[in-house]
Design brief:
By secondary structure, this protein is mostly helical. The protein is built from 5 helices and no strands. Helices cover about 70% and strands about 0% of the residues.
Length: about 130
């Protein structure tokens, strides 16, 4: 009687073990690294070409980028452990950056800039992680 109970249990154990070993773990292929975040030089070059900025506008936009970069670095230092708050503050700096740039554009450039922002929002890739701390 005891063997009648043991045989099904042993049989199930062998089936389970065979099934477990037959299921090989499939590893995901390595993902390519995310594209690097655009540098201020890349952004300045892009705006200069797209908006046909004059020398004075280029200088002013460069100053705005430098100011924003400093603010963002201070925010990263301040919120190194509180990512949500850090991202909210960075978003505010970036919005202020756009407003300051718009103040230095003529009407036609403002229209182009608005179209560029709209296009960027439609094609926005996921936000990359912040750079590693030094």
């Amino acid at each position: 009687m005891l063997t009648r109970k043991i045989i099904p249990v042993v049989l199930c154990a062998f089936l389970f073990a065979g099934f477990s070993f037959s299921q090989q773990r499939r590893e995901r292929p390595p993902q390519p690294p995310p594209p690097p975040a655009p540098t201020k030089e890349m952004k300045l070059e892009h705006l200069t070409k797209k908006l046909n900025l004059n020398d004075q506008q280029v200088k002013k936009v460069e100053e705005i980028f430098n100011y924003s970069e400093e603010k963002i670095e201070k925010i990263r230092e301040k919120y190194s452990y509180i990512r949500k708050d850090m991202m909210e503050d960075i978003k505010q700096v970036m919005e202020n950056e756009k407003r300051e740039i718009e103040k230095n554009l003529d009407d036609n450039q403002k229209k182009l800039f608005a179209e560029m922002k709209k296009e960027r929002m439609n094609n926005k890739p996921p936000m990359p992680p912040p750079p590693p701390r030094k």
